[in-house]
Amino acid sequence: MKVAKRTFDAVIVGAGGAGLRAALQLSEAGLKTAVLTKVFPTRSHTVAAQGGVAASLGNSTEDNWHWHMYDTVKGSDWLGDQDAIEFMVKKANEVVVELEHYGMPFDRTDNGKIYQRPFGGHSQNYGQTPVSRSCAAADRTGHAMLHALYQRNVRANTQFFVEWMAMDLIRNADGDVLGVTAMEMETGEVSIFHAKATIFATGGSGRIYYSSTNAFINTGDGVGMAARAGIPLEDMEFWQFHPTGVAGAGVLITEGVRGEGGILRNASGERFMERYAPNLKDLASRDVVSRSMVTEINEGRGCGTDKDHVLLDITHLSPETINKRLPGIREISIQFAGVDPIKAPIPVVPTCHYQMGGIPTNYKGQVVVPKDGNPNVPVAGFYAAGECACASVHGANRLGTNSLLDLLVFGKAAGETVVSDFQSGQLTLKPLPENAADVSLARIARLESQTNGEEVHEVRLAMQRTMQKHAGVFRFADMLKEGVTKILEVAERAKHTQIKDKSKVWNTARTEALELDNLIEVAKATMVSAEARKESRGAHVRDDAIDCAETPNGRDDKNWLKHTLWYSEGNRLDYKPVTLQPMSADVEPIALAKRTY
Amino acid sequence: MSSKRTVQFKIYRYDPDKDAAPYMQDISVELEESDKKLLDALVRLKAKDDSLSFRRSCREGVCGSDAMNINGKNGLACLTSMDDIAQPITLRPLPGLPVIRDVIVDMTQFFKQYHSIKPYLINNEPAPERERLQSPEDRDELNGLYECILCACCSTSCPSFWWNPDKFVGPAGLLAAYRFLADTRDQATSERLDNLEDPYRLFRCHSIMNCVDVCPKHLNPTKAIGKIKDMMVRRAV
Hints:
The complex is a heterodimer of chains A (597) and B (237).
Chain A: E1 4-13, H1 17-28, E2 33-37, E3 53-54, H2 65-75, H3 82-102, E4 116-124, E5 129-135, H4 141-155, E6 159-162, E7 164-171, E8 177-184, E9 190-200, H5 221-228, E10 233-234, E11 239-246, H6 256-259, E12 263-265, H7 273-276, H8 286-298, E13 310-313, H9 319-325, H10 327-337, E14 346-355, E15 359-360, E16 366-371, E17 374-384, E18 389-390, H11 402-423, H12 438-449, E19 454-455, H13 456-470, H14 477-494, E20 497-498, H15 508-532, H16 557-560, E21 562-567, E22 572-577
Parallel strand pairs in A: 1-2, 1-9, 2-6, 9-17, 15-18, 19-20
Antiparallel strand pairs in A: 3-5, 4-5, 7-8, 8-9, 10-21, 11-14, 12-13, 13-14, 16-17, 21-22
Chain B: E1 5-13, E2 23-31, H1 38-48, E3 67-70, E4 73-76, E5 89-92, E6 99-101, E7 104-105, H2 108-116, H3 136-140, H4 159-163, H5 170-181, H6 189-196, H7 210-214, H8 221-236
Helix pairs in contact in B: 2-5, 5-8
């Protein structure tokens, strides 16, 4: 098969928030850039973010980046790298104000500034009282942001390859990254995108779980591609279960609802979060709220005939507030829960939402791997940002509104790093290996000829059920062990999937089969990493970790204050230290402490 | 309602790789209790026939991927309830755009028109250090405009767009044009109006209001177009 080759200074995979923010940097600097995206840019999942983006602008309540840094480190259960966290919170005001200048329609305060609302885990004065830090456009912040970023890219003449699916990462014998292979969905043709720099901004992989707030497209494509190409995946055991997915449907209800005054109630109407988090209550960190909800349900205080959910109540808010600040939520509740939240509370359950781990990077957006005893050596030509990457700013648990901030800050940083590496002449076009497209062509040829295999949706469902059952909100040692065996079995089955559709044109059966390969890498990484981490930290909580003075909340800093690295080849684990030292010498590290809200 | 039910479909099918011409396929599928929306039913159908092709992503009405013609009216599959839908459910691609395969259309012309109105804020003053100020009242002017998801339900239900997709901007593009005209931070008002001053680009709208009728986000492009026309008149006198 003849494979066309295209050459660029840089190729960006993914056109959500991180990809578009990086693209802007490159386009405005005049680099010849290709942005590959399997959906039209404004269909990317950033569009579904609701509640806001964090920045310590202090427009409504006093705020500063020191408090934001403290909240983020504490939220991460001290697994976040403090250099990257310092970098992110210090850049927050700049990237949010830039968006406003791009035209993003933020809500406004009476004096015309960007409107800010309280959000979970964000506080004034190192954990004391809730702070209004979330910059919001009603409850459609992600939509407003993604469209503003796309619009700015239209202005910058960014070159998009829309409905092209990236397939495999191309590396040479030295491990340098030389670009990707990609398939044009309309024709089924595979091309090589040869570039001096490759930026992955492919988003998360929440579709490994059965119940997820994530879009169908969130199949971990970049994460899977990186893993298959020998890049380790960092901290994949840490998955955020958002407290408020619509029961049954999984659709997201923003934490901004609680930011505006919403209250979680159990079957007897009790505001149960007062018991679990006396200080921040319903606005405690997401992992804490999700576990409290599951505990209520497990102990028989759930709502509904099956006592399988709790209620999110905003009936005490005025209809004006709901219609002004939470109009999208009202629509979603009516559409997917069948209730108008002005009149009745919304049934909610914790639902898989966000991947804290991913492709390991530093705060410049460079992908880093262990080499010759150094745990963080940049891979030449390879960068990543957004949910697919692990900088790591979220550690073991992400704070709400820090994801939109992450994709802005690190999308921009990755773009800036590429531009400066390009301008200093460090980036060169290295020769392609002769077999650069062979892996991708072989994957397509297998699907073309496979007979007697299982259907893609059957294997995908088996994976999703396994993840849901064995690696959920609460984790159990024996279930994790069994989960590893099961997910490896599912991974074997995925090698023999069969599709009936053999058309070259817009073959979505083939796309879904290719996506499954990516999902499987993520699922294996998650289960294996989770089984191995013998402590509770952030979103990873297991039954055999004991809460005592030595190990507060089951967190074992002596043995487990370290990042996991999972290698696909050999299904192997490695670890690297957490960066506890902030970026600047004059910034005090946030000292380890027991996490309470 | 029983937990399982069988639903009848009539679906426009066309695969240029093997079909000489498009045809309507009669097909049924058994739904599970959890299949509440048309998109759920389509995913269920695809498990039965993996060659059925459609776009989808967020499944909650915010990404705009799964627009199609449903029982004769444009809408999003993910926001269409299976409870109150007439059978057989007839699905066709959005009208007026070239079909690539099944209900997947080529949206090039639609996006070309969107891009033609310069869908980005134009303000050539040096950017201040902090945000540009905007009063809550001025910000409210953008409500009902910025929420567009570019699904193309409106433009592909508009007869004026069917006849002149290359010349008439269409409701989605014009809604976006007014979104920037209405933004107190934008400085390109006369440039934007010049860009629409032509017998076709704006004035082919005859207020048929199909766009308002089908918009899954309950937006009102006709009203926005009326406001642009007002601005044109006001600057002429």
